[in-house]
Amino acid sequence: MKTCVRKIPLSPTITLQIFDTTRRYYEDYHLVRIEIECEVPLLEEYFNGPEQLAAARRILSDCAVYRRTIEKMGVPYAEIEPAREQLIESFVATALPYLADEKFPPKFIASELLKTEKRNRGFA
Fold first, then answer.
1. β-bridge mates for residue 41, sequence order
2. For residue 85, how many other CB atoms are within 10 A of its CB?
3. Are 86 and 29 in contact (CB under 8 A)?
């Protein structure tokens, strides 16, 4: 089951959501799994004019989605909560400064457009 455990506003238009998708996999052992997502809207200010924005929207729709999964295996039931918090705090300490930077949205969108373009060329 996917449960939102935390929301972190990064800007007026971007909120990072942290989901817990922990599951039991053997007796008292669990896979503590955290999924991190945020939608980065395509705004005209990230592009050189409305034509570029329209082209990007044809590829990505209205937003690019940032996703990361972090996990720890072999966690006994009694240690799930501390393991979850350690994973989240580690992510927040290392990635949040990058994600909260005002340069992140346009760089991330450009990266996603490039990845999609490369993927599409592979099928041509």
1. 63
2. 13
3. no
Would you give per-residue pLDDT tens digits along the chain (124 residues)? 899 999 999 999 999 999 999 999 999 999 999 999 999 999 999 999 999 999 999 999 999 999 999 999 999 999 999 999 999 999 999 999 999 999 999 999 999 999 988 888 776 5
Q: Which two tokens stand for residue 120?
A: 């599409």
Contact between 106 and 56 under an 8 Å Cβ cutoff? The reply is no
What span, in angstroms and rounded, lies between the C-alpha atoms of 43 and 121? 26
Please name the amino acid found at residue 85. Answer: E
Give how many domains the chain has, as a whole number: 1
- Name the token pair of 85: 């918090």
* Type of residue at 112: E
pTM of the model: 0.88
Structure tokens given for 123: 């099928």
Range of the domain at 22: 3-122
